[in-house]
Design a protein that fits this description.
Order of helices and strands: HHHHHHH
Protein name: Terminase small subunit
Organism: Ruegeria sp. PrR005
Helix content: 55-70%
Radius of gyration: 42 Å
Shape: rod-shaped
Structural class: mainly alpha
Number of strands: 0
């Protein structure tokens, strides 16, 4: 035997035996007439034919070598892009399911709802003052037998003052959406 066996060349080159067999099939090894492997010629041919990134990965074991000219920055960037795309798809799915809403739109809707609620409370004393004055007068007359007249305007002013105090206290509340 003039050269090395597959096992010997695998130990010499740092490849697995399967890697040596694959290199033989792909024509990256120089063989003697007896089928043994010419180590020097095969090393040179493999160096010419093998992608440098593949060589570095096979030497380092994981392909995460850092330095100028290495592909690790590309791999990291590609990984970051893939993660970003997955997150973007997940957000789109949540939005379609209705579990995710636009923050600005939600804040606008909460503000609009609070404004409508405030407007209802501001106008409430004027709407119910006359009815409440009549009910209170009727109840006092029923319990005491004396006729009492309650001024609607006074009752409305008192109620408006109390409602405004309550609304001022509520104005300090802030909705936090995140």
């Amino acid at each position: 035997m003039q050269g090395m066996s597959e096992r010997d060349y695998a130990a010499h080159s740092g490849l697995s035996r399967g890697g040596v067999q694959k290199a033989r099939r792909n024509g990256r090894l120089v063989l003697f007439d007896d089928g043994s492997i010419d180590a020097d010629g095969s090393d040179a041919r493999r160096a010419e034919m093998t992608d440098p990134d593949q060589q570095r990965r096979s030497l380092s074991g994981d392909g995460l070598i850092s330095g100028p000219g290495e592909t690790s920055s590309y791999l990291k960037a590609r990984t970051a892009l893939t993660v970003y795309q997955a997150q973007e798809r997940q957000l789109a799915i949540q939005k379609k399911k209705g579990t995710l809403v636009d923050r600005a739109r939600a804040e606008t809707l909460v503000f609009r709802l609070a404004r409508q609620e405030r407007d209802v409370w501001v106008t409430w004393p004027g709407r119910v003052a006359a009815l409440m004055a009549a009910q209170i007068s009727a109840e006092v007359e029923r319990q005491t037998g004396a006729s009492v007249t309650i001024e609607t305007a006074i009752l409305q002013r008192v109620r408006e003052a109390h409602v405004r105090d309550q609304l001022d206290a509520l104005a300090d509340l802030r909705v936090s959406l995140g």
